[in-house]
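Homework help board

Subject: predicted structure for assignment chain

Our instructor gave us this sequence and asked us to write out the predicted structure in token form, then describe one feature. I got the tokens but I'm not sure how to describe them. Can anyone check?
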Amino acid sequence: MTANTWYCEVLHTEFGPLTWDDLRGMATRGTLRPQDRVRQQGGGWRVASDVEGLFVSPPVDDATDFDISIPPPAQKPAENDDELDFDLSG
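My token output:
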């Protein structure tokens, strides 16, 4: 067993030995929760949320980081648009 061997405790049951990828997979699927306990081979238990990189947020797509505004509806033309109502006689 190496230092890359992990164990976790979920619902009062210990699982392991696990690889880092196994542990990350459990975290990604929600099987391992941030409040569950984990430890490396030969190490002490700690809260899973304290392990750097274990619960990584999915990347944010910057393309969706913009303001969406809806333009006002177009003005309907007047019913008698051919007849303009203004005086040019000055």
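Reply (TA_rk): Your tokens look well-formed. For the description, you could write something like this. DSSP finds one helix and four strands in the chain. That's the kind of observation they're looking for.
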